[in-house]
Amino acid sequence: MITQPLLYLFSLAILVTTFYLLESKTSLKIFKLIPAVVFIYASSMLLASVGLFESNAEINAIYKQTKTNLLPAMLFLMLLQVDLRHFVKLGRSLIIAYLLAVFSIAFGFIVVALVFDFSPAMSGAFGALAGSWMGGTANMIAVGSALDVSEEAFAYALVVDSVNYTFWVMLLLFLVPFASYFNKFTQSSENLAYLGDIGCACNMGAKRYWLLILLALSISFLTQYISTLFVIINATTSMVIFASLFGILGSFTRLKELNGSSELSTSMLYLIIALIGSHAVVESFSGLGLYVISGACILIIHALIMIIGAKLFKLDLFSIAVASLANIGGVASAPILAATYNKSLVSVGVLMAIMGYIIGTFGGLAVGNILIGLSQ
């Protein structure tokens, strides 16, 4: 049993590194369907469940301190990659498709919460899930922390995310050959050839890891201090919002040119996932079926609204499919789907997914608070 806080962090770092290397350095196909974060969370939770980590005061203290310091730092670095100017260049059909995807997902969460009569705990878990399905796993953590979602409820949300996401990716890839039939149904005449010239907000040049670490931790300490002076709902919500705003503001400066922010924010994300998993000792997954079914119903509502919107606005299948997966799947999968239509359109998937870094946190907080309000 691990009783020392530094050994506790070191063991989690080894776990994170192992799955990162398996995902990035090997060609294992399983990571195409199930991202490394799921394995990191599940493994960390398993180690905690078998009693590897002692739940003493020292470990609990370093858990809270590490998570509190890394969360705003990760959000800041993640949002430095956003380039709103590139997003505007996407054109009418893709912007409408993206906004339609965000609205339909939010609407689906609210409708399903009313139909299934979510409890406060379930509402919090689905609020975190809304952050993921409007952005990504990092947004899920930010929203879950702000809503004070328990580690057990977070575990349920992550399972729902993984199961439904896997089937959703497979469905959207399956539909690619039928694009011409769908476009005929919606009477789409959009020419997407110009999108191949749009670049993504990619970083170039030498990596600046140490500078970025110093900058990110400075922002983390600053946001924690500001959140004690200006409280929005609670201290964690304030911290998440201020860190996001600093990241958005930084993306308009030369700070976005510092290469390495993507790798650092991913590393922080993986470690936070491992930390949360190490405190998620779930004794049973009874009731998980309701969570998974609810998640599937949200996707069905989302799909119906996207199809209706495509018919009304004459959108093509590429636009609505990539917009959908940019929200639900994020940077890891949206470019892959875009490439199946045309390899020159990969940057479109990247740009739309990166926009989710902004929308996911604020949208997830809004949806989460609505769900919690409805459950009371």
Please give a structural write-up.
This protein is an all-alpha fold and 376 residues long. 74% of the residues lie in helices and 0% in strands. The protein has 17 helices and no strands. It has helices at 5-25, 30-33, 36-49, 57-79, 84-88, 92-116, 120-134, 137-146, 151-174, 179-186, 209-229, 235-250, 261-277, 288-313, 317-328, 334-341, 346-375. Helix 9 packs across helix 14 (288-313). The protein is globular, with a radius of gyration of 20 Å. It starts with a helix and ends with a helix.
What is the topology?
Blueprint: H1 5-25, H2 30-33, H3 36-49, H4 57-79, H5 84-88, H6 92-116, H7 120-134, H8 137-146, H9 151-174, H10 179-186, H11 209-229, H12 235-250, H13 261-277, H14 288-313, H15 317-328, H16 334-341, H17 346-375
Helix pairs in contact: 1-3, 1-4, 1-13, 3-13, 4-8, 4-11, 4-12, 4-13, 6-7, 6-14, 6-15, 6-17, 7-8, 7-9, 7-17, 8-12, 8-17, 9-14, 11-12, 12-17, 15-16, 15-17, 16-17
Structure characteristics:
mainly alpha
Q: What's this model, at a glance?
A:
The protein is mainly alpha-helical.
Give the number of helices.
17
Question: What gross morphology would you assign?
Answer: globular
Q: What's the alpha carbon Rg, rounded to whole Å?
A: 20 Å
Total number of beta strands: 0
